[in-house]
Predict the structure.
Amino acid sequence: MAEAAVSNTVQCGFESHPGHAWAERMGSWLVERRLSQNATRLKSLRAELAQIDEQLAVFADDAEDTAIRALVSETPGAAYEANDARKHADAMSRHRQHVVDSISDLERKQDELLDKLTRGV
């Protein structure tokens, strides 16, 4: 009786064991789920990047205009305003780079997941 219980816990050693097929399906399902989540996040980040690009163009134009006005007026207030506009443009530029880096990381992760899926997990 005890020997039978012990023998039930030992793996059979064959690749055709029903547990192996279940594990492969489960692994494949997890990879597909991660791919789906990754694709959703990529879509969101790409939409955000498009918005950032539009905003960055506006901020950069504003910074350039205020810098020219500051040169012409030569007042401390205008210089402060130009500096403030440049800081906003620089902050948006850094945020854009962060989003671009995140997209790159997600694309790399997507490639790894696709490789796993095609290898059969």
User: Anything to note?
Assistant: The chain has one domain: 17-119. The first helix runs from residue 2 to 9. Residues 56 and 92 are 6 Å apart (CA to CA).
